[in-house]
Amino acid sequence: MSYILTLTTESYLLTGSGEGGVLIDADVVFHRTGFPMIPARRIKGMLKESLEEVMEIAGKTETDIKAVVAALFGESGKTTYQGKLLLHNLLLPEWEQIAKEVSENKMYPGFQSDFIKEYFTAEIQQTAIGREGKEGEIEGVAKKRSLRNYRVIKPGFTFDGFIETTPPLSEEEDGLLRRAVHNLRYAGTRRNRGFGKVKCKLSSPLPSQAAQGRSNSVSFVSDKLDLTITTLSPVVLAEQLGEQNTVFTRKYISGNQLRGLLANTFIRRKGLTPLNAHLDSDFFDVFLSGKVHFGNAVYRKAKPIPLHLHKYKVDENKPVISVFAKGEPDNDITKSVGKSGVIRNNKILTDGFEPKTTFNFHNSRPNRAAGRSTDNDAETGIFYYESLNEGQAFQGEITGDASVISKLRNLLSSDFRARLGRSRSAQYGRVLVSLEAAQISGVSDSLSAGKYVMTLQSPLILLNENGYPAPTVTVLQKALSAIFGNEITVEEGRVAAAFTYVEQFNAIWQAKSDKIPAFKEGSSFLIHLPEIKKAPTQLGESVDQGFGRVMFDLYKPEARYEHEVSVKNHQCIEGKTDDTVNTSHPVLTKIKEAFEQEREGLDVKSLAINTAQKAKHLNNHLIGRMERLFEHSGSANGIFEWIKETHGKPAGDALRKADLVDYDHKFNLKPHDKIGNDWRLQKLYWTTFFQTLRKKNKADGKQ
């Protein structure tokens, strides 16, 4: 089951991102398009705190409170999440339609990130006031260096998102969740300083999104499945790269992670448990017997560029060559092209073949009591998550015995939703999995005798005669010879390889494996092969988890490649007409109107400034009176009435000498055809006009 949580801002809201800038000390969290959002991890923490308050008001004991909170939100510090609630980010209503229309009109300047942020947010400044008796402070005067600038979400905006439940909540838990939502009236930072007043409501339970998808209509038999995993929310595929407070994400979905995702879905569909799943014969055949090979899922079908392909460091206009064919006396320094991409018609394409990621700031605070200082709390921490952006598709394949694969495919639907990666309970991890049948013989095309470049498509794990991992050329030659039945040698000096360490995580044992040394993907080896009818596509250990994928290419020493890097122009097109911007969502229509008004206002201000620069002198006292007059007038009638009263008085004479009042003592409110009868633009024009006159007087030394 799932609920829809709706939150409406009733005052300025600061859901802190943990980051700031040169001009902003604390900023809100934005989607990469510029629209504000409320992260699910913030919602989870606030609902958890609200639930504790509700149960305390009801007189529940601390033991009862901890039990209910653990059942709904899981226990802090546990390796796996056991709570019933899965929370999504809160975004604007009908977010998918908004994102689609913005994408279609992304070149329109009004839909650029900075203007969208300006539409939804405001900047607020606050200072701390000194208290009597405090050293270095003056009572009633702002403390030194205490000025803070906050960017906050404006009141009146609504956000919504799903709260999924696995398994469904009991009647008592449903009631507690509803009361916790109703009790959630303040959110975000500085809610004891006037910020963060919100109104929340929870919809009736809906069918779970996880159950949606195309079901199987016919029996299925095939030895290959084409797989597509589309991210529906940011996904964190944790990879530790040295920075202790930052969790980076892997840029592809490994075969081991794919196997775990499908295994969890298989367990739920068959009504098994993780502890006894291995006793089920179907589960054992699909996931534990090694009969099914789960390949890595990569973005846009990108492949690692072979490491033997190098470009020149000094002159990058030279063609890319193979270092296997680099002759002497060519002493120019080269470097590997690296990255991932595709090679088409002797062109190496790498731009756009790496998935987009985003960094998000998080903090952990075990005691969320309002106002509590956590300066000395050893358990409090801050960290960053790098995540794959939503809306990106990763393709892979599952191969193996047709009868075993059919068990997997016939139990799962063609499309189904699942959760993948870290922090799946809140904000991250929602994906859509699509499985399609494809026929395959299990091997690559036949190869004629000759020289071939063998390139690794995934890390290669090799074991020596003693059973230990040993990524060496000697062990590789033995492994190739065993597969082909002939002695295979790697040509001396024709190796372009790199090394890496692979590490797996076992969810049942709740432990990581040892770090296993392996040849890195992209490593290339020049080998001599006899005529082969069925060349393998996999080599080494753990091939069922996506390791050891290889590809053979006929060696062409004369081949030259062009590294094509396209630079996309993301600049907006100025002067784009309204007819080319198609929006139907009310929010986008309002943003568009606000942008047009601002652009129109800038034109009016420019006109007023240019006119004021040529205008006659007017003293500052009268300028101030005119500024206040326009500021407080709701229509042109107020201006006309005041002008009449100045007839024959010094103010009226001064205005007439400045050519602002004609001889009939009427004020000209239409200084230009662009302004017309629009009072908003007239008011903006004259306010800017008199402000410019004041600045002109100051520059000229006049009063």
Characterization of this structure:
The structure is a single chain. The N and C termini lie far apart (72 Å). The chain has 703 residues and is of the alpha+beta class. The model is unreliable at 370-374 and 567-579 (pLDDT under 50). The radius of gyration is 33 Å and the shape is globular. The protein contains 14 helices and 31 strands. A hairpin with a 6-residue loop joins strand 8 and strand 9. The chain folds into four domains: 2-209, no CATH class; 212-302 and 354-438, 2-Layer Sandwich (Alpha-Beta Plaits), CATH 3.30.70; 450-564, Immunoglobulin-like, CATH 2.60.40; 584-700, no CATH class.
Summarize the structure.
By secondary structure, the protein is of the alpha+beta class. 27% of the residues lie in helices and 22% in strands.
